[in-house]
Q: What sequence folds into this?
């Protein structure tokens, strides 16, 4: 690495090597642009290092143990011993494999990798401070910049993350021992995924949520399936309560919560996991230097080309706004670079699918019935309960359903909500349907493999047409 | 605030309109609801009002231009701020300087896609590949009527819309191009080859569809001639060039295969047309022009045409002709006309005919019906809305007198006169020309004996009246001069048989021959 302040130049400068940034960098390389990718910490960003990938690794590993120990019905009697340190180390290997893969891909595509923290220094320059004492810094001139700095877990007052008592998802994914008890603040998707993991590992989990339900972003009947299962796993829920303060007590802590009316409750636990959302990282960028400002939430506003208010500066991924999902950032990264390269690319997708890796999983895409009605469609809805799916029964997981929302006139599929085992996989088919403008008939007429969970999609679509075979058409 | 104003839907189901005239100029101050343009739809001319108080910043469509509903025709600067428009062009500058990797089509693509107009409920059903093509070709995908199920827009639809928009008459070929053959030059067909069919050395080059953008731009430059040594083209293309009397090495193209110029059939055609046009122009200049005028086929003219074609090609027509002695009717009308004049109502024969028709329609409900082909049902109308075909300067219009059965003769007369006047002045609304159940056309007003009128689809019958003439008739064994009118009834034979047509006509005649019988009709 270069020591001292030198200046180099690049066509495309990308700040942040998370899913938005590294995808942009690789595509830029493919398009023969001179591209520089600056990363302060680890290739792959939050997703690969502290988010999607490690959490999915732990969820899967936990399920192996939990499923084995709860399979008496199938004639299996086991009591697996879980070594969390071992599990975390396996997870780290997975992460390492992926992040080094990203690095190799970048290099193979001719991406210029720079380690350090970048901030804007002028209209066409960034200053990159290299990590570590005396490592110096460098200035890079750019034609175009893509901000892909991602997001960080949000804190709430009195609950600064200390890595020991008060932890964020990041630390929760790297614990070396299973906590005996855990208070989880926030019943959004991160809170619910991790609550499920720890409950399955034997932790006594209490979830405190300010709003009045789990997964407030999802429809009631979808969230209810997850909540019921969570309660079966022994998770306690307290709604309408916000965490107000905490103190150490004995080996653990006591978390105080307060309702709107001022009623105070206390929960004792070994640790508290705060998962109340994520905030964009834009405060480290010195945006003033390029004359850019964020909106109230700290996000950078972009148009349908991922371009900010400054002509040659683009923003992709979490910094560019909700939904903060890796795959949305990846798409934006591609589009930003293609626009820079002069291609007629645009963010014209119909929907961003989303998945929650709870038990069972949730997968959604497009509009809910209510949203479609609000958008002026007259809708028709079809459902297939998983208990009518042969494959779900053979998996021993028959909770949940597939729901498809379509336009009643032409039959265009407008959206879908799935809460079921492997919902995150099943939603892909309906994502394609929504994006292609497929009709109910198109999906219904497609032969689905038997016996699979995916058949439930076909059945739900047929149900919307009053032609389902394996359920009664009401 | 700059306010872009799209051509609104000025009438039920109107897809496009012609800007007849702008009533404002750029820079003019306007008030809300002040008319800014006259737009002619397929039936009427309407005023388009300003949606804001402010000033006219830019007019995007010229008078005489045909624009689809939803197209931005004018931009207003709303009161309070005037000139903000100058910022927009910088948008496109960016692409030019960003052109690190690619060519030229994208500049326009970016500009146009930014102006994408939202559609109803904001959703266009189209595959991502079709949406990308639309951006590439600079087509607003929201304005395309898709040909897929429920109106889904396919790539083909996008391509067709783009071709329409640019006015290039390139043929979109669905079949893959045949393998191109490499030939030394156009005259080199005998260059040591035994392959007589291909006519060349037949070294197959890599094939593939010419890219859309490529063929579009090759059309644009079709006017100039190229002068190449050698040209790649499919055998069929060479044949086309030969048949058109064109040297294929002269056909301009910017497509290449294996580093050689490649010519498509479309390029040959547009070049041939350009050559032809040039020759025509030359010939005209030399020989003193054979004068022709090309009149745009649109607006009312086109609507009439479409209506007629649809009716004639849908409904098998049969026309029944007859004569009727209307001497008594002429007398009755002469008497009543004076009374009507006192009420300042001009009483023609038409209200009598309308009354006679309504009475006959009651008796023969099939004649007052329509065919719902989709439902496979014949719909008999229990109401009697009589259309009156009217010649106007713009063409044929058919104002409709509603509920003719419930109106007296004077009401019919005054209402019809009013509608006909409106049609001639072109102030008539679409509503006033819709919902007819039977039509009468008074050809005789202009002259002539018999006609074979075209049914006003989806109605199933139309009655044409000839002129009333004095003719010799035999009454009680003697030849006497009588007033005689001819009738021509065209029917949709799918619904009405000839016998019914004849019976219906007979019934109408009875009323016209003995107008006092109309007194028994309500």
A:
């Amino acid at each position: 690495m270069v020591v001292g302040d030198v200046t180099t130049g690049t066509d495309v400068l990308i700040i942040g090597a998370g899913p938005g940034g590294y995808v942009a960098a690789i595509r830029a390389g493919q398009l023969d642009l001179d591209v520089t990718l600056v990363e302060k910490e680890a290739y792959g960003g939050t997703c690969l290092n502290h988010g999607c990938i490690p959490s999915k690794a732990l969820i899967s590993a936990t399920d192996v143990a939990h499923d084995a120990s709860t399979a008496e019905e199938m004639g299996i009697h086991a009591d697996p011993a879980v070594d969390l340190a071992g599990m975390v180390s396996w997870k780290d290997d997975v992460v390492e494999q992926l992040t080094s893969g990203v690095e190799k891909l970048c290099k193979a595509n001719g991406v210029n990798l720079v380690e350090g923290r970048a901030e804007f220094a002028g209209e066409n320059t960034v200053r990159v401070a290299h990590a570590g004492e005396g490592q110096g810094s460098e200035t890079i001139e750019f034609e175009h910049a893509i901000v892909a700095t991602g997001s960080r877990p949000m804190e709430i007052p009195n609950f600064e993350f200390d890595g020991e008592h008060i932890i964020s998802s990041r630390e929760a994914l790297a614990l070396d021992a299973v906590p005996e008890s855990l208070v989880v603040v926030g019943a959004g998707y991160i809170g619910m995924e991790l609550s499920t993991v720890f409950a399955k590992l034997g932790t006594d989990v209490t979830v405190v949520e300010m709003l009045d339900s789990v997964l407030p972003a999802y429809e009631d009947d979808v969230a209810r399936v997850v909540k019921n299962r969570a309660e079966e796993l022994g998770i306690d829920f307290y709604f309408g309560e916000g965490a107000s303060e905490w103190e150490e007590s004995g080996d653990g802590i006591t978390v105080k919560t307060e309702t709107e009316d001022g009623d105070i409750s206390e929960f004792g636990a070994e640790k508290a996991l705060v998962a109340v959302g994520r905030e964009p990282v834009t405060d480290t960028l010195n945006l003033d230097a390029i004359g850019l400002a964020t909106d109230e939430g700290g996000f950078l506003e972009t148009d349908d080309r991922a371009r900010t208010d400054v002509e040659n500066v683009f923003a992709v991924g979490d910094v560019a706004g909700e939904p903060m999902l890796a795959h949305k950032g990846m798409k934006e990264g591609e589009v930003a670079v293609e626009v820079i390269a002069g291609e007629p690319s645009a963010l014209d997708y119909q929907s961003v699918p989303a998945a929650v890796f709870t038990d069972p999983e949730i997968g959604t895409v497009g509009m809910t019935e209510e949203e479609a009605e609000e958008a002026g469609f007259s809708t028709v809805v079809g459902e297939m309960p998983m208990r009518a799916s042969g494959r779900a029964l053979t998996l021993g997981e028959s909770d949940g359903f597939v729901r498809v929302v379509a336009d009643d006139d032409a039959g265009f599929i407008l959206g879908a909500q799935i809460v079921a085992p492997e919902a995150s996989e099943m939603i892909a088919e309906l994502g394609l349907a929504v994006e292609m403008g497929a009709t109910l008939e198109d999906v219904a007429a497609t032969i689905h493999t038997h016996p699979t969970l995916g058949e439930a999609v076909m059945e739900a679509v047929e149900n919307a047409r009053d032609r389902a075979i394996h359920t009664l058409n009401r | 605030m700059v306010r872009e104003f799209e051509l609104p839907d000025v009438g039920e189901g109107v897809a496009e309109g012609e800007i007849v005239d702008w009533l404002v100029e750029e820079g003019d101050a306007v008030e809300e609801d002040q008319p800014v343009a006259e737009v002619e739809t397929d039936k009427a001319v309407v005023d388009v009002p300003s949606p804001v108080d402010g000033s006219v910043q830019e007019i995007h469509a010229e008078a005489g231009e045909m624009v689809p509903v939803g197209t931005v025709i004018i931009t207003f600067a709303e009161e309070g701020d005037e000139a903000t428009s100058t910022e927009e062009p910088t948008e496109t500058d960016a692409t030019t300087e960003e052109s690190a990797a690619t060519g030229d089509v994208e500049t326009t693509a970016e500009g146009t896609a930014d102006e994408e107009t939202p559609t109803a409920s904001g959703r266009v059903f189209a595959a991502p590949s079709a949406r990308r093509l639309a951006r590439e070709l600079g087509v607003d995908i929201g304005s395309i009527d898709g040909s897929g199920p429920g109106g889904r827009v396919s790539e083909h639809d996008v391509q067709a819309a783009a071709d329409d928009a640019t006015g290039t008459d390139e043929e979109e070929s669905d079949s893959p191009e045949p393998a191109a053959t490499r030939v030394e030059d156009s005259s080199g067909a005998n260059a040591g080859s035994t392959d007589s069919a291909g006519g060349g050395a037949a070294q197959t080059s890599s094939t593939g569809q010419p890219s859309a953008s490529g063929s579009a731009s090759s059309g644009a430059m079709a006017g100039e001639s190229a002068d190449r040594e050698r040209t790649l083209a499919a055998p069929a293309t060479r044949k086309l060039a030969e048949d058109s009397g064109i040297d294929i090495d002269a056909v301009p193209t910017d497509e290449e295969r294996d580093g050689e110029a490649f010519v498509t059939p479309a390029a040959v055609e547009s070049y041939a047309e350009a050559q032809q046009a040039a020759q025509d122009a030359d010939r005209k200049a030399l020989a003193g022009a054979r004068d022709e005028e090309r009149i745009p086929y649109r607006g009312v003219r086109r609507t009439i045409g479409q209506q007629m074609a649809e009716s004639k090609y849908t409904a098998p027509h049969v026309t029944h002709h007859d004569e009727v002695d209307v001497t008594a009717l002429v007398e009755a009308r002469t008497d009543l006309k004076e009374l009507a004049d006192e009420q300042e109502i001009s009483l023609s024969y038409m209200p009598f005919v309308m009354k006679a028709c309504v009475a006959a329609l009651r008796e023969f409900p099939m004649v007052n019906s329509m065919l719902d082909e989709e439902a496979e049902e014949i719909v008999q109308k229990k109401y009697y809305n009589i259309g009156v075909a009217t010649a106007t300067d713009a063409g044929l219009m058919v104002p409709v007198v509603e509920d003719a059965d419930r109106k007296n003769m004077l009401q019919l007369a005054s209402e019809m006169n009013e509608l006909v006047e409106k049609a001639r002045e072109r102030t008539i609304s679409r509503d006033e020309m819709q919902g007819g159940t039977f039509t009468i056309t008074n050809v005789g007003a202009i002259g002539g004996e018999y006609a074979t009128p075209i049914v006003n689809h989806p109605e199933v019958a139309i009655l044409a009246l000839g002129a009333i003439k004095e003719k010799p008739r035999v009454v009680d064994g003697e030849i006497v001069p009588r007033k005689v009118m001819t009738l021509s009834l065209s029917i949709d034979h799918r619904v009405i048989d000839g016998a019914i047509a004849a019976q219906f006509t007979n019934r109408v005649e009875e009323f016209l021959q003995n107008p006092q019988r109309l007194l028994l009709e309500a």
